[in-house]
From TrEMBL:
It comes from Nocardia fluminea. Keywords: Kinase, Transferase. Coiled coil: none annotated. It comes from the Bacteria. This is Serine/threonine-protein kinase RsbW. InterPro entries: HATPase_C_sf, HATPase_dom.
Length: 142
């Protein structure tokens, strides 16, 4: 658990939601809607919400494009008045579906405060590699 997780978990006004959808590009709009709603309730500005949507789009699209057929994508969104943390997980065909030197990763890295990708070993039950992209966006207090 990193410090941003601990702060969100300890907050008395934290909101957390989990969504599981088919790993299909048509479902990205649903993930965006959930994250946007949580961010707005937590008090993020419209500009901050736009950055969160862009980062989530990139993360989810990257994982969906390499997801094993007929699988699902999982998304957990946790937020409080200071930050939002989003973790997107899918079971992928390849062990490293994320190009950390590519434009999409660069965009996510530029608009988030913390970005990480976790690759797990091949899971025979799920017939693929579980991969999670996690990012945190800190609210800019004015």
């Amino acid at each position: 658990m990193d410090s941003s997780d601990r702060l969100i978990t300890d907050s008395t006004r934290a909101t957390s939601t989990r969504v599981r959808l088919d790993a299909d590009l048509s479902q990205v709009v649903m993930l965006r809607a959930v994250a946007e709603t949580v961010a707005l309730i937590a008090g993020f500005t419209v500009d901050e919400v736009a950055d969160i949507r862009v980062a989530l789009d990139e993360a989810a699209t990257c994982l969906i494009l390499d997801a094993v057929p007929d699988s699902q994508i999982y998304c957990e969104v946790s937020a409080d008045a200071f930050r939002i943390r989003i973790a997107v997980t899918a079971v992928c065909d390849s062990d490293h579906p994320i190009d950390t030197t590519g434009f999409g990763w660069h965009v996510m890295h530029s608009i988030t405060d913390h970005l990480a990708a976790e690759h797990s070993a091949y899971d025979h039950e799920q017939d693929g590699y579980p991969v999670t992209i996690t990012f945190t966006q800190v609210r800019r207090l004015r």
